[in-house]
Amino acid sequence: MKPHQPPMNFKTMSQADVPKGREGKHKQIVEQILSDLDQMKDGTAIKVPLKDLATSKEKVRSALNRAVRKRGRNVATASDGNFLYVWNVSD
Length: 91
Prior knowledge:
elongated
């Protein structure tokens, strides 16, 4: 005889249907920035218009920082009222 169990607190779903990875809303812009960084010459920076970002520059910077750390890259960022600047940093 099984002991009485309390009812479940949350709904369940098939594990196969659980989303995999961190495919957040910043993925597209971060991938575009990384692609451009791969093609840039030393001494140049990318100018990303802030008005074109779907979210704040701080959130994009955070997502970019996670992505470059994961890939073992070294980049720097700066910003002003109109643009987010991103460039490769030589080791």
